[in-house]
Design brief:
The structure holds two protein chains of two kinds. Chain A has helices at residues 5-20, 24-28, 35-38, 48-62, 64-81. Chain A is mainly α. By secondary structure, chain B is an all-alpha fold. Helix content of chain B is 65%, strand content 1%. Chain B has helices at 2-18, 44-47, 58-61, 63-90, 93-99, 104-115, 145-164, 170-197, 206-214, 216-258, 274-297, and strands at residues 127-128, 131-132.
Chain lengths: 82, 302
């Protein structure tokens, strides 16, 4: 498997896109992974599920605008250069 | 940034050379001197100098070139400052300097430990009033010098091995380098993700993880060398040896960093199988090393 840096960038963009499109109301709450389910544990160590939900929520919040920019750039570049 | 200055100088010199055949821009009032076609630093200078500057550096007597050069150098300086500022915002340079504070004795001992860790007794990273000691003073501290050098040596060795097999071309070198780099990045990202998900409050920073991931290149170099010198059998023996040594090293080093943070969790509210997860992380990291070593070197030794 020969990886180039370009394929790494592609993979990262695709993965972050995949995390960012998980919709809160339509999908996650139905599966029991909503925001209200995450903050169950008190004490200093939330469980694995709470960490994952926190991660999804923060990726969605932070990366929304940069993702728009990066995706638009990718679309333009792929249209121009194939 | 000196390259910027040099290129700006050569650009100006070329432009002056093009205006050399005289007086496209400047009147050549020097008496009887024919148009000397020496490129670059020449006679358009004295023609339009306002001050009575004799000799000296002809480049500086041309006020336009002088002003342009000063502008270019100030631009280069601001560019350099901006790059430094932005860079230091992402990577704290002091932390990076800590990882490169090594000396010869440390490097030799560390290489010995990487290839033969079974006799090393004390694996604890020593602290000095809450800050970890530099690698010069503590042989257990991770550093980034050995991984960097080992990575570069591995790329050169790959080129040599492929050349021996008549399969060399310059693109292969770049491909191999980026493949190895991508595997390091993947491994560091997976480690960071798993440490975050399991809320392991260790003091492993990103650079520590990069260092520990980079130590496998020493094993890879040893394996490839043995494979080149002793053929396929030597390759497998060296692979087995360096895999065991590296697994032992990783488990003993990470155990100190990941597992003892259990003692801080006195609440006990987490699920009871926490310590197992941390052990799983350590063992999974250790098992991943031989797989990667085999994957990245097997095509070099037939």
């Amino acid at each position: 498997m020969a990886f180039t840096l370009y394929s790494l960038i592609q993979t990262l963009i695709l993965c972050v896109n995949a995390i960012a499109v998980l919709h809160e109301e339509r999908f996650l709450s139905k599966m029991g992974w909503g925001v209200d389910h995450g903050v169950g544990g008190f004490g200093d160590d939330p469980g694995v599920k709470a960490q994952i939900l926190n991660l999804i929520r923060s990726v969605r919040t932070i990366m929304r605008v940069p993702l728009i920019i990066v995706n638009s750039g990718c679309i333009v570049l792929l249209l121009l250069f194939g | 940034m000196t390259t910027c200055r040099v290129t700006s100088l050569t650009i100006f010199a070329k432009q002056r050379g093009r205006a050399g055949p005289p007086t496209v821009l400047f009147e050549d009032t020097s008496s009887g001197a024919p148009a000397m076609r020496t490129p670059g630093y020449n006679m358009a200078g004295p023609a339009n100098e306002m001050q009575g500057d004799p000799a000296g550096n002809n480049l500086f007597t041309d006020p336009m070139a002088n002003a342009a050069m000063m502008y270019g150098s100030s631009l280069a300086n601001t560019g350099k400052d901006m790059v430094n500022k932005e860079f230091s915002r992402f990577v704290s340079v002091n932390k990076l300097k800590y990882f490169f504070a090594v000396d010869t004795r440390y490097v030799l001992k560390k290489l010995m430990i990487l290839l033969f860790p079974y006799t090393h007794q004390d694996w604890e990273v020593r602290y000095h009033r809450d800050t970890p000691l530099t690698p010069r003073q503590d042989v257990n501290a991770p550093d980034l010098y050995i991984p960097t050098m080992a990575f570069i040596t591995y790329i050169l060795l790959t080129g040599m091995a492929l050349g021996i097999q008549q399969r060399f071309s310059p693109e292969v070198l770049g491909l191999c380098a980026s493949t190895a780099l991508v595997w390091i990045i993947i491994e560091v990202l997976v480690m960071l993700l798993s440490l975050y998900l399991l809320t392991v409050h260790s003091d492993l920073s990103t650079f520590d993880l990069i260092a520990y991931s980079g130590y496998k290149y020493v094993g890879m170099i040893f394996t490839v060398l043995c494979g080149l010198l002793f053929g396929s059998d030597g390759y497998y023996v060296a692979l087995a040896w360096s895999s065991c040594a590296l697994m032992f090293f990783i488990v003993r080093s990470l155990k100190m960093k990941i597992l003892p943070s259990i003692s801080h969790d006195t609440m006990g509210t987490g699920p009871s199988n926490k310590p197992q997860f941390r052990l799983y992380i350590t063992v999974a990291t250790a098992v991943f090393q031989p797989i990667i070593i085999y994957w990245l070197t097997s095509h070099l030794v037939r």
